[in-house]
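Q: Predict the assembly, please.
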Amino acid sequence: MQRNPVRWNPLVAWLSAAVMLLAASLARAQLSIEITGAGATRIPIAIVPFAGEAALPPGLSSIVRADLERSGLFRGLEVPPLIPHPTEASTVDYAEWRSRLADALVLGSVAARPDGRYEVRFRLYDVVKQTPLGGVAYTLAKEQVRATAHRIADYVYEKLTGEHGVFSTRIAYVVKRGSRYELQIADADGADEETALASFEPIISPAWSPDGRRLAYVSFENKKPVVYVHSLLDGKRRVVANFKGSNSAPTWSPDGSKLAVSLSREGGSQLFLINPDGSGVRRLTSSSAIDTEPRFSPDGQWIYFTSDRGGSPQIYRMPAEGGPAQRITFDGNYNVSPRISPDGKSLAFIARNDGKFQVALLDLASRQTQILTDSDRDESPSFAPNGRMILFATVIGGRGVLSAVSVDGRVKQRLTVTAGDVREPAWGPFLQ
Amino acid sequence: MRAMWILALTALLAACAGTTSEQSPAGVEDRSPSAGAGAQSNAVEGKGVTGVDLTGKQGGMLSPLKDPSNILSKRSIYYDFDKYEIKDEYKPLVEAHARYLREHTDAKMLIQGNTDERGSREYNVALGQRRADGVKSMLKLLGAREDQMEAVSLGEEKPKAQGTSEEAYAQNRRSDMLYQGEY
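A: Predicted assembly structure:
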């Protein structure tokens, strides 16, 4: 239920060029999500509106249903008004729900507490096996309806698919409207967006710290790329890398103790490790080529990165403490933006095929590569923390949009904002 | 209005550059008398109109950096797709700026490398850096001092030309040589 409010603090005195930044935006630009492809088989689930949920701001059971449907793995069934209205305490008539073609059923209730808060209880049932699968009670304030619904959806998703749900996670992305850039944070369903940074100069490459409390990114507010770390809780930012030349491509080590970045301070674009406070700079690569876009493997042992040391941009990996690099991609002459799946078993990247830039997925064991998208301007892939979906930026009808595709290529979503370009998505970690 | 903004911001940026002791501030700090982008107002005879001249006149002398008939007023080097070599046609331009930097030892230059919008943003930052580094290397070979120059990349983020035509892309594959006060 805990959320970190994103607030921009204009009083960070040491911040250079604070004048470039604008106060948190008044203009809201909520992402709207359109599902453009679904799984081959979707679990039919009946989510009965919770008894008494009208006492809360609207949305509790409908957000649970929308979350589950958006995953592409569930189909929410229409439920007619039921008398008496069943709750998690009711005896379930499995035969009746079977006849409504439900495989799963969610029943629940909302009760006001004396302290002004509310209690939500729900139970999940396997209608086919005619057995309850469990339930949870949450105490919440009125403002926490959406967060509670996401928690319920996560519970249902995990019970029925065996994987962690990502409905309570957040995403970061950059919206460009005219000459204005905003780094925004929203719930994974695009709602409740907040502006962490607004600027008249570009912002790229947001990267979540493993604990989800900080974002590293590159801002051009000093007329050149500089790496910042931004604390979402209090809006404080600090410069991590502002060396002579360009400072770019930040990524966090899995334990959050270090960042890998690409710096040109010693000539060329080379990989360095640096502490989040800007201390402890250590050079990792020594090539005469471009080395950039580092990403740690989830076990922290390897760094995957993009390099043109072989003549064309390809993906390589090297030990995270430095050492010889080995080439990972071989097909085609432009493979960039490596992202390792949370289980470390596959690599998403952007491949150029016949002039099209598309999201590709390489199985690191079998060496098989699959192109997951049919768009042609894909950029910046980002795994959901459960590894099921990949969020990326693309261009549809001349506008920057975000898309998501499942790792099997079947489920597809599109996230757009009105009157603006969205780009540079980064899917945050599981809520802690 | 926009020009005023930029002037104000430039001044502020210069004033508050620099954050940690180990790291160098963005850009260059010293002011050169020859590289003013300042505005001057002059009284125009007869009509009672006060003109504002933003073209860089200083004390009645046109700065060679602003004089359209002087090669030094040209600042951009354009590249072929995926290339960073300086084509022969731009070598006299780089030589002229190297001479200027040699003769004006307190002049400082920011070289900004740019790319077209195709491909990875971060890879394009690196490509733009390679272009800017190439210009800096040539200037240095021709006698400019290392500490007079900073080479940075704007990647694909600050396109001069909008659109997805080859003409627009060609405009955006570019290095710009800027003196302090100009960025």
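The first helix of chain B runs from residue 2 to 16. Chain B has one domain: 2-179.
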